[in-house]
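F.,

This is the one I mentioned.
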């Protein structure tokens, strides 16, 4: 067996994604994969996608709510990259034949009107850079079997990023009391979870500030026009063929995705 290198981490994760197969945690075989190296792998994986023609369109946060942290057994938030290939337009079914074991989670989504770069960004400052707030969902699709991973594993795996979609309503930050914005998750007509956006770090703007500061430490900034997924508000639900997940937000409308 060849030795583990950063490039091999990227090769194996990309192969799992394109061949639609899950695998054991890389840290089981490569304990030297620490958080720093994992972020370098995440950046290298992004670069491969950009080289293949995808466009960088934003960032996502992971594990920003207690519900997500408890489910995954990791209590530290992380950041990852969004490309245009991940965006699922409204009404387009989720392509289950391209995914491994997709799960859907509700998210507050920001679109930035100006650049935002740490360090020292507060939630209030972060919110000034937000042009529009949407209710959305993310389809996570870990490349690891049973979504079992350590923090470096999930960082290298671009935080399980799969697809995402945004709802029909865009509001300016001042037109919304974001922490009390409620969401209700429904699977085929059955309500399976409810929460308010305060579940995300007390306020999703805290998650945006966290991303700006964490990315700055690695030399990156967020750009005007970028989309930011602030992290799952509730636990994620599996998306099965023919099944529909709807997320109803109190002011941000309803967003729906069906597994095809
Ligand atoms: C890790 C990705 C988490 C979120 O919103 O918390 C994430 C996972 O749960 O597989 O996207
Ligand atoms: Mg998410």
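My design for it:
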């Amino acid at each position: 067996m060849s030795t583990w290198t950063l490039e091999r981490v990227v090769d194996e994760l990309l192969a799992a994604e394109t061949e639609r197969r899950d695998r054991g945690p890389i840290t089981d075989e490569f304990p030297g994969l620490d958080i720093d190296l994992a972020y370098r792998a995440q950046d290298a994986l992004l670069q491969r996608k950009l080289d293949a023609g995808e466009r960088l369109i934003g960032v996502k946060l992971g594990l920003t709510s207690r519900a997500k942290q408890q489910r995954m057994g990791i209590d530290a938030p992380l950041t990852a990259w969004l490309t245009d290939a991940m965006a699922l337009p409204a009404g387009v079914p989720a392509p289950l034949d391209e995914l491994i074991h997709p799960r859907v989670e509700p998210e507050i989504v920001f679109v930035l009107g100006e650049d935002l770069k740490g360090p020292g960004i507060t939630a209030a400052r972060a919110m000034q850079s937000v042009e529009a707030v949407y209710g959305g969902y993310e389809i996570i699709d870990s490349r690891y079997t049973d979504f079992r991973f350590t923090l470096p594993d999930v960082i290298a795996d671009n935080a399980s990023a799969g697809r995402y979609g945004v709802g029909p309503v865009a509001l300016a930050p001042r037109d919304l009391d974001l922490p009390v914005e409620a969401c209700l998750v429904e699977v085929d007509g059955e309500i399976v979870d409810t929460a308010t956006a305060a579940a995300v770090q007390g306020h999703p703007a805290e998650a945006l500030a966290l991303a700006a500061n964490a990315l700055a430490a690695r030399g990156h900034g967020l750009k005007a026009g970028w989309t930011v997924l602030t992290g799952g508000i509730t636990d994620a639900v599996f998306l099965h063929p023919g099944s529909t997940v709807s997320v109803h937000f109190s002011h941000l409308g309803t967003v729906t995705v069906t597994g095809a």
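The helical segments are 6-19, 26-29, 35-51, 66-72, 123-128, 151-156, 204-217.

Talk soon.
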